[in-house]
Amino acid sequence: MAISHIKSNTIADWTGTVTIGNSTGGTQTVAATNLVRPGDWNSAHNQYYTLTGNTNGASTASGTNVIFSGGNNITLIGGGATIGISAGNGGGGTLAGWEPFQVGNNTTFSSQGQNSLYMQKVRPDLNYSFNNIEMRVSGSFVSSTNSQVAVHTIRYGLYSLDTNNSYNSIATSSIIISASFNSNTAMGFTISQGAGSYTTTSGGTAIASLMTGLKHLYLPFTNTLSASGEYAVGLLVSSATTVGTSPLRLAFLNQTIQNNLTIGKVYATTLLASNSTHVGDYAQGVYNTTTGAMPSAVAKTAMTNAISQAILYHQFEI
Predict the structure, then answer these.
(1) What is the pLDDT of residues 228-282, one digit of tens each?
(2) Going from the N-terminus, what domains does the chain have, and what CATH number goes with each?
(3) Handedness of CA 7, 11, 12, 14 (dihedral sign)
């Protein structure tokens, strides 16, 4: 910040020596450079600042042009004769992770429909970055004398709403969880995601507990969400079994609202009759076409409300 006079004095600076009056009523000769000259009025003032409280670095700053610098999610905004200071994410910073919906006492675990794409809408107020989409799942196991295999392919991704009311794919991924047992005498799990893979086995079915009960399911996915953007998290589960589903059954955590697929809309200018395609801005929709792959785009009109007006619980995790 530089401080100078609004008026610019265009009179040339004196040079050499100048005769001036003195305090005794006489005169004296002085160098012109020792006087306040027109050019001095046109120069910037020297400034000196002392910083106290929560500081970092030097506690003073000085100069003819002291610079204000934003940092640590502080953004400075200049316009006309105003300097704005925005603190936190609203100034353009990015926060790590986000939980769009908190778990309440109206939650339930439900299995996803085979090859049904579920789209949970989210509308962030701030900017967020993340490396995983975390789901909550409940796994179950049933003992059997038969040899069985259950393979669950979990496809997931992030979509953004365009100006044509269609959710377009930003990116998608998938993870495969395979469970098998050999007539209760041996059991194994394999998890595959991209180049990564994990396998564990045991004699008997002792390791069934690793996937039984409430679990945090981390789905690798690195991306960002922009403040005021309109997004949807897509989830598509395809399951294949040999003999039966006993080695592993999966159910995802949802918040249930009411056992009703249809809802109406009331505006100041019109009324719209109840319809299953009236999916709310923060609601979960189901794509009306079953598919074994994540589509590149899903129109708003191609979605219907999830059963019980359910909201798919998830977190964006670092």
Answers:
(1) 899 999 999 999 999 999 999 999 999 987 888 899 999 999 999 999 999 988 8
(2) 17-67 (no CATH), 98-178+208-317 (2.60.120)
(3) negative
